[in-house]
Amino acid sequence: MTAFVVTPSLPVVRTDNITWTIRQQKDPGVFEKLGRWYPLGRVAEPMDIAKAVSFLGSNDAAYISGVVLPVDGGMLAGMNVMIDEFILEA
């Protein structure tokens, strides 16, 4: 039996939900601005998370168990950019 946990980045996953549609209408560059917070330079797409889950559920990951896999574009490693922006806004 294998067990794993996938931890996506903040709930800033690009979707077609109304909240992000309105936010993007108000600020067309919102995703590019948020992308600065991530060392990989962009917010997650749903497929980014799905591919990680698919891999962990595949035979290629048969010997992986008991892991917590951050799928966050490096955000945890690069939070200094986000923190700097919040401090500058305060």
Reading the helices and strands in chain order gives EHHHEH
Largest sheet: 2 strands, parallel
Query: How far is the N terminus from the C terminus?
Result: 48 Å
Report the radius of gyration as a whole number of Å: 16 Å
Q: Provide the CATH top-level class.
A: Alpha Beta
Q: In one word, what is the shape?
A: globular
Query: Tally of extended strands?
Result: 2
Total helices: the number is 4
CATH topology: Rossmann fold
**How much helix, percentage-wise, in residues?**
40-55%
CATH superfamily: NAD(P)-binding Rossmann-like Domain
Runs with pLDDT <50, length 5+?
none
Mean pLDDT: 83
Give your account of this protein's structure.
This protein has 90 residues and is α+β, with helices and mostly antiparallel strands. The chain has a single domain, classed as Rossmann fold (3-Layer(aba) Sandwich), CATH 3.40.50. Helix content is 41%, strand content 11%. It has a two-stranded parallel sheet. The radius of gyration is 16 Å and the shape is globular. The model has no long low-confidence stretch (mean pLDDT 83).
